Amino acid sequence: MKIRRSFFPSAPVALFLAMAAPWSTPAGAQTAATSGSTTTVSASTTSTTSTSSSTTTTSTAALVPVQGVVTGGAESVSFSGKAKLSADVVTDPDFGGIPTVVLSIDLSSLKGVGASTGATYVTSDLGIVQRRLAAGDTVQFTFPFNRSGMSPLAPSVGFASFNVSFDVNTLKLTSATGRIGSP
């Protein structure tokens, strides 16, 4: 008898459901202080079972204060606001490998102000990166932004950097800091 396994195990379904949760902070959320600003961290854990194994997804959300200046282009732009981080850690029960972290970073709440014109700049970027779980990690990526009300077809580019820490035993995001700069 030949056994066939689905190419799409139940872990992606649990991951989708965890990521579809609203960006609200439940009562009793953990709070970590970071250089005068506050990062709010909240967590939940879900388990799914397939025919051959059980996968655990631990979801942690955080609002991370970020700021920084992107230089170059038409003018320097000073960004500030809170990035929304969602860290979903998925275990690998079939092979016993290191859990995988799917980190979603939403920068759409950031606002930029032009140094010479005072114009408002915006971004709607959502960065998604996948990594192996580690106690500490740095995630860096570029993001597009444009002057509010202008066409996003020729965006300027900024650089985002986030330092994240995880408790590797509970699979939860414990702290995060972020900054904006030039690529």
User: So how many helices?
Assistant: 1
Looking at the structure, what is the overall shape?
elongated
Q: How large is the radius of gyration?
A: 19 Å
Class derived from helix and strand content: mainly beta
Oligomer: single chain
Topology of helices and strands:
Elements: H1 11-19, E1 30-34, E2 37-49, E3 54-70, E4 77-90, E5 100-106, E6 111-114, E7 120-122, E8 126-132, E9 136-147, E10 156-167, E11 172-181
Antiparallel strand pairs: 1-2, 2-3, 3-4, 4-5, 4-6, 5-8, 6-7, 7-9, 9-10, 10-11
Structural account:
There is one protein chain. The protein has 183 residues and is mostly beta strands. It has one domain. It is built from one helix and eleven strands. Strands 1, 2, 3, 4, 5, 6, 7, 8, 9, 10 and 11 form an eleven-stranded antiparallel sheet that branches. The N terminus is likely disordered.
Summary, kept brief:
5% of the residues lie in helices and 57% in strands.
